[in-house]
Design a protein that fits this description.
Length: 164
């Protein structure tokens, strides 16, 4: 069998090493009797994957082969990416604010009022931008919650305060 493009991927080699390590450890544990008496011992694994999908097996197979995600799963990835971006922006602004306070403390008296006003203006702009971004993110959260197949996967709306 010829190696395919996925076999050249260093992550594939690493995953194979991890799988071998897990299999070897499980074999040692089984030989030592550490896996006996566990719930479900001797029963087959539950059916999973496209073969267990019944009439929908073709759809699952096509999705898996083409690396297609359900709409709600793709939306979850987008939500997580946006949340991380907002967290980075919030951290950056908090750091800027800290440095700015230090700078204001060192300014001569005649420049403090103007600089403090500029600082307040920037804080207000950042907060306004962040509020708009959180509103847009919460629209995605509402859509995700309406699409997700299991209620336990639903997300709580985000608050601006968590990012500032």
């Amino acid at each position: 069998m010829r190696p395919g493009p996925a076999d050249d991927d260093p992550r594939s080699a690493k995953l194979r090493r991890i799988e071998r390590g897990v299999e070897e450890r499980l074999a040692r544990m089984a030989e030592a009797g550490e896996l006996s008496g566990l719930p479900g011992e001797g029963r087959p694994f539950p059916a999973r994957g496209p073969d267990a999908a019944g009439d929908r097996w073709g759809a699952y197979r096509i999705m898996a082969n083409n690396k297609v995600l359900p709409t709600w799963a793709q939306l979850r990835r987008e939500i997580e990416a946006e949340r991380e971006r907002l967290q980075r922006a919030g951290r950056a602004h908090r750091e800027w604010s800290r440095r700015r306070r230090e700078q204001l403390a060192a300014l001569p008296a005649e420049r403090i009022l103007e600089s403090a006003r500029a600082t307040r203006d920037r804080d207000a702009r950042v907060r306004t931008d962040l509020e708009a971004a959180v509103r847009a993110l919460n629209v995605k959260v509402e859509k995700f919650n309406s699409l997700v197949p299991v209620e336990s996967l639903q997300l709580a709306p985000f608050r601006v305060d968590t990012f500032i």
